[in-house]
Design a protein that fits this description.
Length: 221
């Protein structure tokens, strides 16, 4: 399978690339920083471009691949650009008819306590420092419903992503945080990459939102 991955040099993007390559896919990595792209595995094709200023190139790349994956995240202070970047990718997917899998955010996931609150709406749940990106992720999530003619799938991370080993074991859910035995919703970047490639290979019906997390004792809400 030929896969193009945007935002390839971030934590999620690089983990997804490693997993996709490990499974024998032909991968093209896309990012702005050519130096960071150089650190990726030798068998990965590299494309240095700015999604915001080169939308035509984005569509050209998608047209050459079977699947597109987005792991894009804007820099701190520019969180609102997430919506603009996602719109460019979705427009390109619409034009080229390429299925696209986008990394979302936990903002719109419901808490597992039955309160009805989401990660973004729950009082005191989020530190102030991460509220800007959470709001941007909520706006990104709302954007998907404007693309009923696009084969999009959104994978939303749990409340905590961390550097850790790949286990290959996780639980997939839809609109509610998946708590581990201690009540925390978490997954490593490596296993989030596994989950993203699993979605692609499972040929899951599109226009759906998913989340993942570790779970050893607590039940999925």
């Amino acid at each position: 399978m030929k896969i193009v991955i945007f935002g390839a040099t971030g934590d999620v993007g690089s983990a997804t690339i490693l997993e996709a390559v490990h499974r024998g896919n032909d991968v093209t990595a896309v990012a702005r920083n050519a130096n960071k792209l150089a650190a990726l595995p030798d068998q990965v094709e590299r494309e240095s471009l700015d999604v915001l200023t080169q939308p035509a190139k984005v569509a050209e790349l998608m047209a050459r691949h079977d699947i597109a994956i987005s792991a894009l995240r804007p820099a701190s202070g520019s969180e609102g650009l997430l919506v603009d970047m996602s719109q460019i990718l979705l427009d390109a997917a619409r034009k080229t008819k390429t299925p696209i899998y986008l990394t979302g955010g936990a903002a719109t996931l419901k808490l597992a306590d039955g309160s009805g609150h989401t990660v973004l709406s729950a009082p005191g749940f989020l530190p102030d420092a991460v509220r800007p990106i959470a709001k941007a992720c909520a706006a990104q999530d709302a954007l998907f419903d404007q693309y009923e003619d696009v084969q999009w799938t959104c994978l939303r991370p749990p409340a905590m992503l961390f550097s850790g080993e790949k286990t290959g074991h996780y639980v997939r859910g839809t609109d509610t945080l998946i708590p581990d035995h201690d009540g925390m919703a978490r997954i490593s970047f490596a296993d989030f990459g596994v989950a993203m490639v699993d979605l692609v290979e499972d040929d899951t019906p599109t226009q759906q939102r998913f989340t993942v997390g570790y779970q050893t004792q607590a039940a999925v809400a």
